[in-house]
Each structure stands twice: as C-alpha cells, then as structure tokens.
C-alpha cells in the first residue's frame, strides 16, 4: 500500500489521534485513539516518516477544512486559525467520497431524482449527492449559459418530472446569484447542497402535485407546510452534519425566522427567492406558467433591503429572458434565448420558428439589440410547439465572436 505523510508538526501533544499512524514501510506506529506523549515522541515519528492510508488522509483533511471554515464563520482571527492543530475527531461523512458522474444535466437529474424519491431510505446518499454537487459546480463553471439553457428547457418538459429539475435549476440560479452577491465560497457550497435537497421530504408528492388537476387536499397542504422541517430531519438522519445546509433547508420558506442561524440570512433569502422564481415558471395542471419577467416582477416588485438586493442580483445573473426560454421577435419569428447579453433585457437568441409557424432550418444567433431582431415579448413553454436542439443552439453560440 502507498502511504501518505501526515502533518506531524500540526499534531498536539496529549490529544488522541483519530486514525492509525504508520511508517512509510507499513509498520504500525500508533493506533487510533493514542496520543503523541512528548516532543521526543514527535521527533521519533518524524524519523519513521509517519504516514496514514490515503483514505484516512483525505478524511482528516476534510475534517480540518471543515474546522477552519467553522472557525472563520465564528470570527476567529486568522493567526489563531493558523496555529490550530489537526482535529482529533473525524466524522463519518468525512470519509464520503463523491461518486464521479459523467454526462450532463439529464444524467444529474436522473441520479438526483432517485435519491429524492428514496428520501430517508436512500442508500449511501451523501456520496452520490456530493458527486452531483461537484458536477454541478463543474458544469456551471464551464458554461453558465449552456447550463441555464438546458435546465430551463428541461423545466418546460413535463415528461421529465419536476422535483429534480426544480432542484437543479434552483441550485444553479442560487449559486450564480450568491456569487454575484459575493457570498463566501464555503457558504455557497452549503447553499448548493440545500438547493438540491430542500424538498427531499416530499419529492414524490411534489411531482404528483405538478400533475394534479385539482387544488391540494388538506393532507397535501399540511405536507407543503411541514416539508422544510421534514426535509431537514431526513437529511440529519441520513448523516448530514453541516449545520449551515440543514439551516438553509429548514428555513427556506421562512428566511427571516428568528429561530434560524443569523449568519445564513442572505443565503436563505437567495434560496427562498430562487425556489419561488422557478416554481412560478413551472407548468401546473391548474395554472399556466409565468414567463420569466412576470415571475421576477411577482417576486421582486416592491421589495426592500435584503429581498431587493437578492432580486436585483438574480435578475442580473439570469437576465429578464434567461437562456432556454422563448421570446417573440419584432419580425414575427419565435426564438429561443441562447445566451445572456450585456444587458438583462437584450439577450442573444436563435430563431427557431418563422412568422408562418414554419421551423427555421439554420440556427443562427441574433443580437436583440439589433432592431431587426428586437425582442417584443416573452412566451411560455406551452405556447411553443416545436422541438429545439440544445446541441445545435450551442454550436450556433460557438460561432459568436469571443468577448
């Protein structure tokens, strides 16, 4: 076995070690739970090139990173943090290695839907959720416009189910908004995890409600009212220990609750706003979806303080006409938004249907700042009866001059 050197200088004399310590040749030097007893003992460990297994090393590193995050969050000064020893406790979750996922957003949707549907009965869900979160971050960093395009297109496809699409789109919008607001990277990760799992307590029912022809029953209304707490409890029972994620999940419908953690005030507002924004744009049997700009106005209009700041940041990051949504152009063409523009109300679009309702054969990106291709009004998904190729739209985008 290949062993990994441990940070001997960061080990505190007298504190029990949370892992077995080995020499680089495989000789057991200290068993888990035993301490370094003196400085001379520390020097002896140096002489034997004290090491650990790769799994223990990674888990210990994650425990250390979490400790540092918690100290920063609690206002501990940087010099004190720099002197902090390695933690003497490793949580089970620190050994969770994210399941690598290949493919794109539809693959993430499939895996996430399975976890959300299983809820408290999910097998080893933390590993898979970590894999999903890491892939979300990777895809967003690679091309945020493509991410929004594919997720908004998925939101308009009722056959795909709603719960996991809602979670992924809410996560993407929350992350982009949080970055715009300058929220801390570690808090953004908690926000991502919360967005993905906020409805795990009612995922199956969330899909049923999206297809239901009648208003929610009394039992369903009770579930809707209690699902945030149920979701947080489910996640804790599954082994999730991040208090920020649990706080965001528990209070995502009550971001100003006095019972919630004060440090997450802005992040809760981001999640609550993104959650409502996506919900208003989703189709229901009992109502038509709102176009993005109408959904935004219904949430942001007349707000003040944190709500107004979050609304402005969200409108800037998604645009008034987000990628993947449909618009009517001044020349009568129906177009799909392909890419956000320099202004929130002037995106790049690809005409997909002409004024005679005939499909457009060649996909070409058009600038809605040009009067020829000026944008007239948004259209909801139900009014557009044509299939759009996401790959062809992205190829059209690739032909645009680089900024």
UniProtKB/TrEMBL annotation:
Top-level taxon: Bacteria
Name of protein: HD-GYP domain-containing protein
SUPFAM superfamilies tied to this protein: HD-domain/PDEase-like
Organism of origin: Rhodoferax mekongensis
